[in-house]
Amino acid sequence: MRIKLLPLAACLAVASGAAHADWSPSGFFFEGAVADHSGYSFNAGLVWPWNWRYETAGGLVTLQTEASLGQWSGKSATGRVSFTQVVLQPIFRYHFDKSATGFFVEGGIGLSYTDKVYITASKTFSTRLNFADTIGTGYSFGAQEVGLRLTHYSNAGIKHPNPGENFLQLRYGVKF
Questions:
Q1: pTM of the full predicted structure?
Q2: What positions are marked as the site Critical for activity (predicted)?
């Protein structure tokens, strides 16, 4: 029996930790990305900071939850195809300055859900619900930030085929 609420339940499970955070978003972001074989995407989203912080000798670790809505595009045998995507992802960020400005590195694992199975001329996913594994770097200056991320989307071998897709993302964000 196919359970249609499974993607929603999975997203809620990832977000449950955000109960300790303020539910007011602290900012928004835009991402443009490219993938192999003429694939690309554009996402827009909101950021919720957690109250958790960890100071190290040289910097600061913070945690935030990101939710985004986006559009993927890829080449098919008959032209371009597009896919609508929703992503929910916690992100750990290490700031090289304790004031949370300047350079940072970040990473996180979240969930991605597309409106249909991702099928292009070069790749065929088997599921609409996938994991989003992200690493990146960036720079915060005042209320703005820019970053470069690499995100890998796949179902972690839950079902085959599972070719995965890698997107190199250029990101711009603004804090409220």
A1: 0.85
A2: 155
